[in-house]
Specification:
Rossmann fold; 7-stranded mixed beta sheet; 5 helices; globular
Length: 161
């Protein structure tokens, strides 16, 4: 597991975290966002989706469980889940979460993922932990070795300019 930490002192600092994660995230993967209420999970998602070409407003799906977003630049559908109100895996199944996670061309961003931790494959889930530290945040990104290896392979296959 590759781990990188970011000290974020303002919301714009989340852009750097979004750019870093973007370099590794591919179709079929998930991002698990962990942290307390108000620590920046939804704001990070807004900034990440804007970076990926989503133009419509990104809202917190606390009461709808998830929202789907299409990118204007990529053939990917991003699903933003908020599982705060879900207490068991079977509730996630009932809202169609597992089918969405397994769908071709989907990337899932999941707030409060602990309730479905058994469904999140370590080899295809990037974990982001948010921790408040006074007025700033410590944001830790954990990327599975298989994802890092795939990214390195892609770089070594790229043409030299």
């Amino acid at each position: 597991m590759a781990i990188r930490s970011f000290h974020v002192s303002d919301p714009e600092g989340l852009d750097q975290v979004a750019e870093y994660v973007s370099a590794f995230l591919k179709s079929g993967m998930c991002v698990a966002l962990r942290g307390s209420l108000g620590c920046g999970k939804t704001e990070w998602t807004r900034r990440f989706l804007r970076l990926k070409g989503v133009s419509r407003p990104v809202v917190s799906p606390t009461f709808t469980y998830y929202e789907a977003y299409s990118s204007e630049r990529e053939p990917v559908t991003y699903y933003h889940f908020d599982l705060y109100r879900i207490s068991a895996e079977d509730e996630f199944f009932m809202i169609g979460g597992e089918e969405i996670m397994d769908g071709d061309g989907n990337i899932c961003i999941i707030e409060w993922p602990d309730v479905i931790s058994g469904l999140l494959e370590n080899s295809r889930t990037i974990r982001i932990d948010f921790e408040m530290s006074g007025e700033s945040r410590e944001v830790t990104v954990s990327i599975p070795d298989a994802v890092m290896s795939s990214a390195c392979d892609a770089l070594s296959d790229a043409p030299v300019v």
